[in-house]
Amino acid sequence: MNNHPLTKLLRDCARLKFYNDNRVVLIFWVLVTLIFVIDSWVSNRLNNYLIFENTFRNLTHQQSLYAAYPAYHEDANHYGPVFSLIIAPFALFPNWFGLLLWNLFNCFFLFRAIQTLPLSEEKRVIIGYIAIPCLIESMLNQQFNAGAGALMILSYTLMNRNNGIWSAMCLILGAFVKLYGGVGLVFFCFAKNKPAYIAWLIVWSIIFYCLPMLFASPEFVSHSYLDWKDSLISKNVQNIVGGSSDISIMGFFRSLLNYRAIPNYIFLTLGAILFLLPFNNIQLYGKRKFQLMILSSVLIFPILFSTGSEDCTYIISITAVGIWYVQEHNRKMKNVLLPILLFITCNFPLLLFPGFAKAHPLSLSILSFPYFIVWVRVLYLAVRKKYHYAEDQEMERLQIIN
Fold first, then answer.
1. What string of DSSP letters covers 66-118?
2. How does 152-171 read in b/e, with b if 16+ C-beta sit within 10 Å?
3. Burial track 351-386 (b if 16+ CB lie within 10 A, e otherwise)
4. Is residue 224 part of a domain?
């Protein structure tokens, strides 16, 4: 009876881990996206999308990309001028449908970028599941952060595949939309043809600077870059003085010490020193594990040290947490740190104690602290030579395949 074909089939099906499949992860991602698009429709909560789609209209009418437009939406745009062209195809549709396409685009873009990581499918599946809590926040807020994270990942993975021209494009486009992407310039260390890579960085910078001029005058576009700078400075000041929530690691320590006068440059200087420490190990530049730790650091560092970081911004850093997790050898570290991080990432203070959370900034800025611990651990692994020289047959096999 035990050898009956049907019995064997049922036994094999019971052992089959259907959830260990990237297609299942993608289904979860799409479901999350659709649920929160429908939620936005029902609650008529389209404000962030309206800010974005209005930028293309303002560009073509040569109106300020960064002024407030209370007749259309609350708050104002803080993305670079070229972003108005990224949103343009979606702005052509009715807002309800444009929002659907916009969120699906960001969902698929980040998912596809994760699939380009030089890791086994099983590890990419794990990263996909780890990212879901932050994906919820990102889709709920209709932001481009998932797309920004995808560009940062692709700027590394395309270089890793010797596609320097497209790697440079992703890096520069990310930086021209949201300054976070500029941190990826450190991937230059891994470029095999450095002069060509520099040339492509310059070419793409010129292209993306000038591209909005197809729809507006050069004078207006050039002035828009100055307006962009002013809007970022104004937003930074507002976040520091308490006009908005600052959930960066800088905001965490300001709230912890109850002293908002600590200047950014102190945090940024210390953060930059830590960030650059691994690059002293030039002999490790060719090691895949080292490169992945640097990628993780690149995805976490600008979010931790930006006063403009929001809960939905951490969709960029959560992928770094996933990369660290599947590369981490210390089981205790994995089993303790990841659950704590995901618990806090689910925004439990605001969900369980909304009144207390809004009255106490530390209860919100604590979101950054577990990411900070992961980042410090990533830096530690990046500087450990033994970690990178350890024999890893899977990485070697993937290197041959790619």
1. SS--TTT-SS---S-TTHHHHSHHHHTS-HHHHHHHHHHHHHHHHHHHHHTSS
2. bbbbbbbbbeeebebbbbbb
3. eeeeeebeeebbbbbbbbbbbbebbebbbebbbbee
4. yes
Question: Does residue 103 form part of some domain?
Answer: yes
Chain centroid to CA 303: 8
Please give the Cα distance from 65 to 123 (Å, whole number).
Answer: 41
Evaluated on CA atoms 162, 168, 174, 180, the torsion sign reads positive
The total number of structural domains in the chain stands at 1
Nearest to 191 by CA among 68, 56, 285: 285
Q: How far apart are CA 231 and CA 250, in angstroms?
A: 20
3 within some domain? no
- Reading the chain (402 residues) residue by residue, the pLDDT tens digits are 455 554 554 455 445 466 678 888 999 999 999 999 999 999 988 999 999 999 999 999 999 999 989 888 888 999 999 999 999 999 999 999 999 999 999 999 999 999 999 999 999 999 999 999 999 989 988 989 999 999 999 999 998 887 889 999 999 999 999 988 889 999 999 988 999 999 999 999 999 999 999 999 999 999 999 999 999 888 877 766 654 567 888 888 888 887 777 888 899 999 999 999 999 988 888 889 999 999 999 999 999 998 878 888 899 999 999 999 999 888 888 888 988 888 887 765 555 555 555 556 666 778 889 999 999 999 999 988 766 665 454 554 544 444
Nearest alpha-carbon partner for 167 in 175, 158, 178? 158
Q: How far is CA 84 from the centre of its chain?
A: 19
Asked, for residue 4, whether it belongs to a domain, the answer is no
Residue 283 sits in which domain range?
20-401
